[in-house]
# Entry
Amino acid sequence: MITLPELKNDFNNVGYICDESTALTVFLSLELQKPLLIEGAPGVGKTEMGKVLADILDTELIRLQCYEGLDETKALYEWNYQRQLLRIQMNRNLEEEQVKEDDLFSGQYLMERPLLKAIQTEERPVLLIDEVDKCDPEFEAFLFEVLSDFQVSIPELGTIKASKIPVVVLTSNNERELSDGLKRRCLYLYLDFPAVENEVQIIKAKVPAAADRLAWETARVVAQLRQHSNIRKKPSIAETLDWARALVSLNRSRLDGKLVSDTLNLVLKTRADQDYFKQEIGPEEIDRILKHGGNGGGLSQCR
Amino acid sequence: MSLKEKLPEGHLEENLITFTNLLREKGLSISTPETIDALQALQKIDLLSRDAFKSALQATLVKSRRDQEFFDRLFDYYFAPPEVQRRGAEKAASHKKQFESKMEQACSEMKFKGEALKLNDEELAQYSSMSQEEQKRLQDFMHKTETGVNVKPRFRPVLESVVKSHLRYCRSKSMYEKQNNTNRKDDQTASGPSAGNGAGSGSADAALGEMDIQAIRTTDLPEAEQLLQRLSRKLAIQILRRQRRGPRSGPLDLRRSLRDNMRYGGNIFSLKHKPKRRSRQQILLLCDVSASMKQYSTFVIHFLHGLREAVRDFSCFSFSDNLENMTPDLKSRAGLQHLLDRVIRRSETWGGGTNLGLSLHELMQKHPDLLNGKTSIIVVSDTKTISIDYAVNELNKLKDRVRRIIWLNPLPKEQWPDYRSVGSVAGLVEMWPCNTIVQLEEVLTGRL
# Structure
């Protein structure tokens, strides 16, 4: 079993920068063997958490992407009807070989989907159930059995119990309220956009070529943009990183208002947000923030 | 020695159970297995670290962003260091003593011809919380009444009724001011140094969502608009999902099933179903636009306008002394402030007296095509109207012609018994208290 300091250290090593509370919640989820439900705005690192955990635990990541209309046949298992039919047709003309029902409903005709695969895998895998809020409430209810007992029932084969309880990470963008039943079975973690200091660390970890000052200024400007309530689609961490990479490839070591204006497409992805930036913020405001450090401060640390 | 060893047996468990009970009283849904999870989590951490202790409880007991606010407040209060707790207890004892002495004084002052007025504890508390100036004004009034010509002791119930009504008014006013002050303090905190990082947007939303709509200031309208849009989109998605057919929702389509299974040699392996017919419902919004209702009505219009993709027909009427069709105004998408300004200018009836009965009568006479079994009517009103009996009569007629009437009342529920009109209307419609954005979302979720 991994200890809390080891987990924190591993998070840092793989470049997933998070606060103490997040690390502790993940640690408790591993220790108590409870699924972890992560909510938060798009682009704060919810899905990344599943991938990072698989990396840290050095195990397989099994991902179930949820969408409207997802059902057991796509999430749990399905019988390979075509193959079963082929077998029946092939044996029809061979009188000596009678096909028994048990032959048809055996493991070789079972197509395992992510949930069944997670339960049957020998090594403890990480099961990432992504965007669970997008699936239908009926499917959510079906998940109860898997998440509470880590077992599934297949009428033809019986109940299959997990040999090793998988590490389960569920993510939600909170598009709809999840049921109390599902929440009750999980530990809960809300991920917010990172503080400027943490985002600087993320940039440094993921874009090592970025100069200290550039990392600070990029994080500062992004944080400032996120604070504008009229900006509808707030820049995600991935967009911050893309922006930092683009600035590095342009051989820039610091930001200014004009550069932000010229590369705006990388952080603000809707026409309305870009118009808002041009009309209400503008390069002058960015220059002012960068000069005075805004209300988040921190620029002085890298001077 | 660890903290657990230092504590008496069962002390931690008892504290935790009391804490979870308090959270439940605040509306958090915490089951016994979650309490057990919390206890198990505490065994895995360093109990001497306050942050770790809080994070462990938070991970196991809190299940939404909104619950987080209550949790934080209660945790800081309940698990306060001993010296803070002691100071708090001393302060509470002193407050209690002061309160009791004020109540005694109020009893001795509220008299008519030597006999105490029949006021309940709440009314006496309201009197004692008033400023000296306000108290003096009320005493002067009572004194003048008492010493008036031909004022007999049997006049006491009339005076009692007037005094009670005045105290009720003062209570509403002070509640409103208190809410405003709290919001202002929250605003100051939110714009302080801690708001500099990327975090915190959620808690600002939560504060705005819990704020009395009437108290939301013009400067907060952009945030309020965004919050309304998000919540409205969430509800629209829910409604649309319900409306869409499931994979096997309609009746069996035999022709498609046979054709589709030809590839299996005629063996039926996959059944095909016809799409399930579902008709989208119609929503008719009726907004009271008297002075005290303006802001509430605008917010509800904005929220419901966001659902227009999910409902077949959305019509909107404002009413005060007559009815005005606002649907054409809503065709173009406008911001909340813009909507408020434009509708104020457009509506001739805005800010006038309220005649609900006449407006309902006009609706049934002029727009009968909008009223049918698929129509859900949402009324935004505090029920204060002239000729309430006529209004109730018209409401009764309207009720029989539509699917349902949902009444959003911005008056706090505890004040409902004070108004006869609320009692008369509540018996005919589904009435819900609704004076915050969160309440608006909660009431409409699952009902449309």
